[in-house]
Amino acid sequence: xxxxxxxxxxxxxxxxxxxxxxxxxxxxxxxxxxxxxxxxxxxxxxxxxxxxxxxxxxxxxxxxxxxxxxxxxxxxxxxxxxxxxxxxxxxxxxxxxxxxxxxxxxxxxxxxxxxxxxxxxxxxxxxxxxxxxxxx
Length: 136
Description:
The chain is about 80% helix and about 0% strand. It is mainly α.
């Protein structure tokens, strides 16, 4: 098992070094890269994690026990997908001279994802509830 961990670690270090080499060798603006990476950390730690913890704490108080874990998973999935979708939902990057950019109704797609996530959460909660009843 230690050999597998060592190999995975070595592969990770090699891939990180290759990525760093590509970043430096291709003349990317390192300030833009730093801003992008910082924004990702801030959005995750300052928005997604805080909202997920707050919703999880609320779920523990309001939801029945079988629904708690599926609801938290739903919060994480929908929160992550929403953060990823902000650029297209806000239509950032749309240009009048190129109508093929952002040419879909991304809000409807996000609503479908939210609905499917809700269905999955409710389904998982029902399965957990029936399993718990069967054990008792």
